[in-house]
Every structure is written in structure tokens, then in C-alpha cells.
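Weekly puzzle thread! Below is a chain. First person to post its structure in C-alpha cell form gets bragging rights.
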Amino acid sequence: MKKLLILGAGTAGTIMANKLDQHLLRDEWQITIVDQDETHIYQPGLLFIPFDIYTRNDVIKAKRDYIPQGVELIMSGIELIEPEKNRVKLSNNKILSYDYLIIATGTRTQPGETEGLMGDGWYKNIFDFYTLAGACNLQKFLKHWQGGRLVLNIVEMPIKCPVAPLEFLFLADWYFTEKGIRDKVDLTFVTPLPGAFTKPKAADILGDFLDQKNINLIAEFNTGSVDSAANKLVSFDGREVEYDLLVTIPTNMGDASIERSGLGDELNYVPTHKHTLRSKAHENIFVIGDATDLPSSKAGSVAHFQADVLTENILLAIEGLPLQEGFDGHANCFIESGFGKGLLIDFNYDVEPLPGKYPLPGIGPFSLLQETKANHWGKMMFRWMYWNLLLRGSELPIEAQMNMAGKMR
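Winning reply:
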């Protein structure tokens, strides 16, 4: 029996397990998926926990509930990938061989990479919200906070869900307005990027969005260290930003097993062909989701679009046929803007976010680069779609490749 091994049972790995189980004959193929965590976290929902919109229980479910019965699930960490031997050593000392390997090990925040970030202020007046623990601890803190300077800082790029930091600030503006203390809160966005919106069309349309919400911007700030005793961010060039409350998006890095295996770049992301999703180094290894080094967003929608392409290419590879260069970098993201409204962007490798209607030209119901209530409800409805359709590998009425219909240049 031939073996297909998937490393990682997060969004990307779970989708692939479901899709391939629908296509590969069980009497010919054994599909195995490996992960060390029993709990699946709906990561877009972490954004809402600090503001009492979601609770912990709204974003977690058992991973086993989303793995098909015919797929073997092994709960273990990954020690080493040995491509020359077509095998993987697990942390529980088990060795798994494979004919084809899919790396879906994702990315994780690494606050320890920044000097001082995990010092005396960690989870006292320094919080992250990209982890369940961070989001829940921040929720407890904000409930009783009476105001001051809230600094949201991106340490370095790339990060998971690049729009989430802006969403946090927009929701914070709403949250503190509802609490009646917005005039006592200074919101400041500190980013290594040259601006809040870096694509020309989006910057042109949304350029004054932060000013409208009275959010300060400090751009091109490359964080070198955190002085938690003095409540200061310090950049590599010596600039300082003071804070009363620091909300940080730490360095994001791929799984440590990628580094141990010598398969990744300096951030442990696997070099991947940008259109086929095949590893650049090994023909029987494919990579999906946040584990890739691709210049696409590290977001759940990207994993969904990649999964359609990767499923086809796995089946082609098994038949010994040429792969399809079908992934175009497609991503779309709802952006919560507060007060029951939201934005939507849709783009790929070559086409920046543009205004228009989505997914139906002229009809929508969603508007691109425009703040609407429909976009907010699209974001809120996505949680149901995620648990009930997306993770289960269901066919959705949105094509993997980006469509220019309804967009205005």
C-alpha cells in the first residue's frame, strides 16, 4: 500500500486530509496526518476575544472531529524529516515512511526572538493576541484598563493574517468608544512597513482611514528590543516609542522541525514553487499554507485556494503527469473596521486590491475597498463556514484563481 503523509493538522493540513480522502482509493493509499495538539483553534476568531465578542469556547474544537475516519491521525511532535530516506522521525520515536509528503506545519509567534519582549512586562502590560493564551489574558486586562497609550507593534514581516493588526486597532477604537473612555486612550500603530496600506490603490482609497479613527502611525520602525522596565520599544536605529500597554505581533517563524531537517530558510519556511506548490528541493514533497516561503499572504483563505490546486497536482504527480501551475497567489480578507462595519480585499501575486463588487459583478453582496455592514457580516458568517465547510474540504463557489470580474482598475 502506498503512503501519503501530511505533517500538521491545522487549517491547511486538515483541508488536504479531507480532500485527498475523497480522491484516493483506501485500498491503495494510506493517508496519515501528524500533529502534536489535540485542539484546533479558529485563528481568525482570536482577534475578537480581547473585545468580548468571542469567548475561548467559540474558537476551539477537537481536531479529531475534522479528520476523516479513513485517515490515520497520530498525535506527536515532529523530530526530523529525512527526504533522502522518504521518512519522518516523530518525537515519540516512531518512524513514518512515505511515497508523498505534504508539509503543512504552519507558522508560530516567537516572542523570545526579540530582546526583552518576554521580560517582566509579559502578560502584565505586554500581550499578544495571535495565541489563545495571549488573547484571553488581554481580554482580562482590557476589562479593567482605564486608558493610556496603547501601542500595537509588528516586530517584523511576514506575519500570519497581515490585516489583523489593523483590525485590532479598529476594534479597539470601537471598544473604547463604547466604554466611554476613547478620549483617554492613545492608539498608536508601530510597523516596519512604510505605511498602514502598502498597495497603491488601497493606500489611495484608504489612506486617511487611520486619521479618521484618530490612530497614530509610526512607520518603518524595525524593533530591536523592548525595555519593559521603562515601557519602551527601541528600534535598531535607536528610536524609542513609549507605551502604557503594548500589544505585540512577535516574529513569526515556521516549525522548528523544518530547521532541524535543513529544509527551510532563515525563518524556517520551506522554499516552494509559487504556482505548483511543490518543494523546490524534492519532487515528492509538497508544501501548503503558512509553511511555504511564498510571497502570498499567510491567511486561511490562501490555504483554501492552495488546497484546490494542490489536490489536483498531487493526483497528477501520482499519475506521473506534469503539474498544473494553478496557484496565482489568490487571497481575500474581510477587515473588521469597528462599529458593525468592515472592508474586503481580493488580490493575487500580480493584481493589487482593487475596488468593485464581490463575488458577483455589480451585485456583490460584498464591496471591495469600501466600508459596509455587509462586509462585517461576511466576516462574522465565515466562522460557520470554516467549521462546517472549509475544514471538511467541501467545494465552495469561489474559484481558486482570482477573477477580475466586478473589479475596477
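Puzzle host: Confirmed. Bonus trivia for everyone else. Residues 129 and 406 are 34 Å apart (CA to CA).
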